[in-house]
Specification:
- This protein has helices at about 10-15, 20-30, 30-35, 40-50, 55-65, 75-85, 90-115, 120-150, 155-165, 175-185, 190-225, 230-260, 265-275, 295-310, 320-325.
- It is an all-alpha fold.
- It has one domain: Ribonucleotide Reductase, subunit A.
- Helix 8 packs antiparallel against helix 12 (about 230-260).
- The radius of gyration is 18 Å and the shape is globular.
């Protein structure tokens, strides 16, 4: 982890062309080697296959090759960095940004099965693998908050409760939009329109925009400062997992629109809801201690949103384009 470029450099660099060697490094690195992988390359790798999306069986085969053991991580240096090198402002900003992801992972771990009920058999293989990924990511954050941040709790839920004061519940949490849409699916898991609404919020917005933005903000900070090597390793491996999740989710949305072109209306209406809620936050996050401004984070959000929609051939309605000019989204994860 030696690259010390500015966290926001990629905002002006634009899309990066990955070499075959870089792709192999991302796809085949074991957990120890992930420390030397550039997070910007992994985020670019997420987009690499969006224009020609892999099928669900291919994604499942990738999962089998890319599984990693969360208990191999050693957080001892991270603890030193957290307590002795990072300022109080950096710690507060970092934990505020990360907490939405912490809770998002656990929420999807228990709610994604309802989406799986109405899926094809091939998609069920991919979703089952994703649920296992989400469980691993939940344990990763549990270890980080317990061993590095020093939160106290007797079990996983105890640590989740301890990190909850930093969570903005707009999209994740028991009262967030995703929980409401999951309840819709519980009542009728075969309702394709409800599935598209859930998929838009979760796969496109929470995973494709919010989660990748959390990764970019926190991991570029860790790389820039040379801090938190176990966090960098585990969360970069998580980003590699997210590449499969985002690609699978965008394939689902693309297939849904191809089967029934009126489904684009469900995507658009859900995005209108999301963007109208995006400026509503129960807790304020300050990004400056991590090397970001609020405006730069907004640019990052909408870069992520536009790239995914453009790559899979889904256009935005004119009024949604206007909404993008006026919202200030809040970070979350999953």
């Amino acid at each position: 982890m030696t690259d010390r470029k500015s966290p926001t450099a990629v905002l002006t660099e634009g899309p990066r062309a990955l070499s075959d060697e870089q792709v192999r490094e991302i796809e085949e690195s074991d957990l120890q080697a992930v420390l030397d992988v550039d997070i910007d390359d992994v985020i670019e790798y997420v987009h690499r296959d969006l224009k020609s999306l892999p099928d669900f069986t291919t994604l499942y085969r990738k999962y089998l090759k890319q599984r990693w053991d969360v208990y191999e991580l050693d957080f001892s240096q991270d603890k030193i960095d957290w307590t002795e090198k990072m300022s109080a402002e950096e710690r507060e900003s970092f934990i505020a940004v990360s907490s939405g992801f912490h809770h998002g992972e656990r929420q999807v771990e228990i709610e994604l099965p309802v989406f799986m009920i109405g899926a094809s058999e091939e998609e069920k293989l991919h979703i089952a693998a994703q649920i296992e990924d989400e469980a691993r990511h939940t344990v990763f954050f549990d270890r980080f908050y317990r061993e590095v941040v020093g939160l106290q709790g007797d079990d996983i839920m105890g640590i989740l409760d301890a990190s909850f004061p930093w969570v903005s519940e707009t999209f994740v949490g028991p009262f967030g939009l995703l929980a409401y849409q999951a309840d819709e699916l519980r009542r009728n898991p075969y309702d394709e329109r409800a599935r598209v609404r859930y998929g838009t919020t979760y796969f496109l917005w929470i995973e494709g925009v919010l989660a990748l933005s959390v990764m970019k903000v926190t991991l570029s900070y860790a790389r820039w400062r040379g801090f938190l090597p176990a966090y960098y390793t585990g969360f970069t491996a998580t980003c590699r997992d997210e590449s499969r999740h985002v690609q699978g989710g965008m394939k689902y949305l693309q297939d849904a629109v191809r089967k029934d072109p009126t489904m684009i209306n469900e995507i658009h209406e859900t995005l209108r809801t999301i963007l109208s809620l995006a400026g509503v936050a129960s807790r304020r996050i300050y990004f400056e201690p991590l090397g970001w401004t609020e405006d730069e984070v907004t640019v990052l959000f909408f870069q992520q949103l536009r790239r995914k929609l453009n790559d899979v051939g889904i256009d935005l309605a004119p009024d949604i384009e206007q909404l993008l000019q006026f919202v200030q989204p809040q970070l979350a994860g999953g």
